[in-house]
Amino acid sequence: MGRNGSENRRRTPLRPAGPSINVDRLNVNSLTGILFVQVLEGRGLKFPEKQKAITEEMYCVLEVDEQHRARTGVSTAEQRFRWRETFHIDVFSATVTSFFIYSWHPQFRHKLCHKGSLKLLEAFIIDQLNGDRMFALNLEPRGQLIVRIGFHDMREVFRRTVNPRMDGVFGVPLTRLLSREMRETPIALTRLIQEIERRGVDCNGLYVCMLIMKLVCGSVEKKRVLRDELEINPLECDLSADSVPDINDFLRELPEPLIPPQIYAMLIDAGGVTLPNDTHGNRQLVLRIIDCLALPNKNTLLLVMDHLATVLSSSPYNGLTVSRLTTVFAPLLLCCIETSCTKELKTLDVPQAASTLSLLLQIWPPRTEVRVIQTHPAVSRTPRMLYRNLSVD
């Protein structure tokens, strides 16, 4: 049988396909937004002969367009290889997701046992690119992986609604949150950044790969535990080795982007007049625009930008280039649904947002001193960065 026939056999929808839809009518060739992947269980999985005597455990690695993005914990045949782990993955121009199942052993090299792939556009074409579907994905050389995959596009992801919970932490306007907490930066965000930097920003795959073993970013189930604790008491929440700190959700769920559209538009204009050999002048121009932010936004942006600059300083070790880091964080800081978009400003355009954040990182002043960030309970009311004068007179 030909190659196309083989690919069709590897994807078996567990629900009726519904009416036929003309792919050409959809003006997309890739997906940008959030991919929801739930790895449920494996069926008919087998260990290689040489592995049977030394291990009974397997784990699943998820790739999007050949980049490692998530990894489950281990499961065994006795547990029927039921992982039941969910991942929310930010994707940009994604086309293919692949699943690789490895044997696991604490001392021996992990061996690839099974693999399978899924073309994302074909998976969601039935649902007009939003919604979710369950698949029995046929694996090579044998077996199946039961997965549920969903997708939300940029308009759905960045609706930025207000959390109705008055004492909440996520999805709360910054002014209200900081007034209640009597802090210059949000306690939850500050502590999460402190914890990530305490664990080390030289971790390979930081902010890109959801490796549970690294505990930088993990499955939805693990993140929800910490999130619930932060919502109750962000100052006393335990950030132990088992917790999964993640600042992305906090920034994404702000009712207004940290850099609002008005300031965003000014930064775009500034990017058009910066000079390649005038670092001082470029910094002066951009930082004066940042000074126009409301004080809660400005203080919080200083915290985040200092963190991103620290992450970039370890780029040789964590693999995060400016391009990769801005693709992850630019939508979180800049994107929203804005009805008054202009020809110059497109508030859901990821490349435009990434270019703007790249401009900020290029001119961003370094931290004035290298220091070990203290963790709870010393969450400073007056962090160092608040005293730094951004304007260059």
Automatic annotation (TrEMBL):
Which example biological process does GO assign this protein?
cell migration
Task: Provide the Rho-GAP domain boundaries.
Answer: 172-368
Gene3D superfamilies, A to Z: C2 domain, Rho GTPase activation protein
Q: Which residues form the C2 domain?
A: 15-135
Signal in keyword set:
no
Pfam families, alphabetically?
Answer: C2_SYDE (PF25336), RhoGAP (PF00620)
Keywords (alphabetical) are: GTPase activation
Q: Which residues form the signal peptide?
A: none
GO-annotated molecular function = GTPase activator activity
Mind telling me which GO cellular component terms the entry cites? synaptic membrane
Q: Give the InterPro entries listed for this entry.
A: C2_dom, C2_domain_sf, Rho-GAP_regulator, Rho_GTPase_activation_prot, RhoGAP_dom, SYDE1/2_C2
Q: Know the name of this protein?
A: RhoGAP domain protein
Name the source organism.
Dictyocaulus viviparus (Bovine lungworm)
